[in-house]
């Protein structure tokens, strides 16, 4: 499991688990830190995908099914063992959703809560019309990354670092851009779903996520742009809310 999951604090006595999915190009450390912050009733498992951290030399995933298959093959026993929630931001929101759908359809296993951040529902019209960022030239791609924030300027201006980082980020975006999901005729889930977003980010079709569940649906808007959750004040609001749920 350690190959796919980063967990800073094992908590066998925890009541539930929070399973977190990285944003495009992201690693597992940001969310794994939450295991040191949240109380002892929650164990945090942060998904580590190929092409980063200790898996840097592994081939990058090419499609969403590869993400889903790997995560479920590793985590299914744990998901059956005790209650769990899913959290994902941007690219991670799509992977969280895809994993939740596969769990329900194939194994009749459902999270107790799904937390989705910084992304339109995969079947919404606005999302389907997004430009394909993965096809941009490296120069235009870095310009776009600068515009959305979240990446330190000193990294963006370092050609060597960007040469190593860009292929992973572009590969993740290509997975999202090729991911297709039909608008559900009937909600697949029954658990609560909460959507978070930055007030200054580009508008996302958050309301469309309501169609995935018969459970309670909530939208929370926080100050900031696409990477609002990296700001300490917002992180505290986020984690307080998750803990209460």
Sequence-ordered SSE layout with sheet pairings:
Elements: E1 5-6, E2 16-21, H1 29-32, H2 34-37, E3 42-47, H3 64-81, E4 84-89, H4 91-107, E5 113-117, H5 125-128, H6 138-148, H7 153-156, H8 159-178, E6 193-198, E7 217-222, H9 232-244
Task: Briefly characterize the structure.
By secondary structure, the protein is α/β, with parallel strands linked by helices. The chain contains nine helices and seven strands, in the order E-E-H-H-E-H-E-H-E-H-H-H-H-E-E-H.
Characterize the structure shown.
By secondary structure, this protein is α/β, with parallel strands linked by helices. The protein has one domain: Rossmann fold (3-Layer(aba) Sandwich), CATH 3.40.50.1820. It has 9 helices and 7 strands, in the order E-E-H-H-E-H-E-H-E-H-H-H-H-E-E-H. A 7-stranded mixed beta sheet has the order 1-3-2-4-5-6-7, sandwiched between helices. Strand 4, helix 4 and strand 5 (113-117) form a beta-alpha-beta unit. The longest helix has 20 residues, at 159-178.
Main features:
39% helix; seven-stranded mixed sheet; Rossmann fold; globular; 245 residues; alpha/beta
The rounded distance between the terminal residues' Cα atoms is 26 Å
CATH architecture: 3-Layer(aba) Sandwich
Q: Structural class, from secondary structure content?
A: alpha/beta
Low-confidence stretches: none
CATH class: Alpha Beta
How do the strands of the widest beta sheet line up side by side? 1-3-2-4-5-6-7
Question: How confident is the prediction overall: mean pLDDT?
Answer: 93
By DSSP, the count of extended strands is 7
Shape call: globular
- CATH fold-type name: Rossmann fold
Tally of distinct domains:
1
Radius of gyration: 17 Å
Q: What pattern of helices and strands is seen along the backbone?
A: EEHHEHEHEHHHHEEH
At the fourth level of CATH, the homologous superfamily is Alpha/Beta hydrolase fold, catalytic domain
Major pleated sheet: 7 strands, mixed
Helix content: 25-40%
Strand content: 15-25%
**Count of DSSP-assigned helices:** 9
